[in-house]
Amino acid sequence: MKFVLIGCGLIAASHAEAIGRMKDAKLLAVCDIKDEAADQLAEKCRCRAYTDAELMLDEIQPDAAVICVPTFVHEIYVSMCAKRKIHVLCEKPLERNPLNCRKLIEGVKEAGIIFMTAQVVRFWAGYVDIKKMFESGELGQIYMMHLRRVSSRAGQYGQWLFQPDLGGGAMHDMLVHDVDYLRYVAGPFERCYANAVKDETGCYNNVMANIIHKNGIHAVAEVSFTMQTGYPFSFSVHIVGTEATVEYSYSAGATIADRSGSRCEMKIWRKNKGLEEYLVEEYDAYQKQLEYFVECIREGRQPEVITPEQSYEVISMIDAIHRSADSGEIIAL
Asked: Could you tell me if 56 and 31 are in contact, meaning their C-beta atoms sit under 8 angstroms apart?
């Protein structure tokens, strides 16, 4: 299956390397408006480099594209692919606000292409295990969930990310992972309240979002982009249930792209049994995500692990959290 990649920033290498390890997919070209970025990734992947996305799509005529451009131009490049009937895996957040998200979704539905948001946490070791625990009922009734994701503002991040109207900082870029996972395991949202602080960028880069689901599950999702220099990119999940307590933690390098020395750990305390050391089977979640996407294309079916409508719900919740932070009020969806 012929792939191209549009946008050669921080996360692009993770997708490119994952495609390179797959037996039934090949990366033929990459594109970035910055020729140096495109040339560097193309040289690493031994493929062609472009600075004009439309020219690349017309010359290569790929089966699928991975969109890794900044969030505020997702709809432009997704539409560019959709009108050429090119299937799309689009990086998260799907769009900057619910209105743009809805416009993007309507466009891909009209085009009839296979489309998926790259919410890689749904494929991540540890998170996948916890999802299975939810489905089996082995955690019992859930009292509380606490998800945490923190990082320093490493130089590898694009500066657009820290502009309120473009990237939105931690609230829009980091929190979307945990809000998406909460939607995945605990179902639709009911209301939220945000305890959040802006830093000198004007973005909410420190957030504690209190979320209540329609089924009554309560959760807190915490994110920060203001950890000091040298603090590793880290995330964790803590769940308290009537049958078990679960703690899962992961740490990488300065950013999630630096996973060479990553560490993860999961512990489970079961009712009347005590501590159980749980071995997490680690693998490349980006590759798992792409393999699933390719499988959907080959079988001609839309992805079920993550749907566009669920991505819309997630962006709507992020928008509600932002409105709550601005107003100090509880926001109902």
From this structure: yes
Q: How high is the pLDDT of residue 282?
A: 87
What is the reported pLDDT for 259?
85
The single residue listed with the structure tokens 């329609």 is 214
The residue with tokens 């020219």 is 55
CA distances from 189 to 147, 155, 219 (A): 16, 34, 11
Residues of the chain with pLDDT under 50: none
Grouping H, G, I as helix, E, B as strand and the rest as coil, residue 11 is coil
How many other β-carbons are positioned within 10 Å of the β-carbon of residue 260?
7
Helix-strand-coil split of the chain, %, nearest 5: 40, 30, 35
pLDDT in tens, 138-149: 999 999 999 999
**C-alpha closest to that of 188 among 219, 220, 213, 209:** 213
Helix (H, G, I), strand (E, B) or coil at 250: strand
Are 171 and 203 in contact by the 8 Å Cβ rule? The answer is yes
Token representation of residue 12: 């692009």
How many Å apart are CA 259 and CA 284, to the nearest integer? 10
Q: Are the CB atoms for 148 and 317 separated by under 8 Å?
A: no
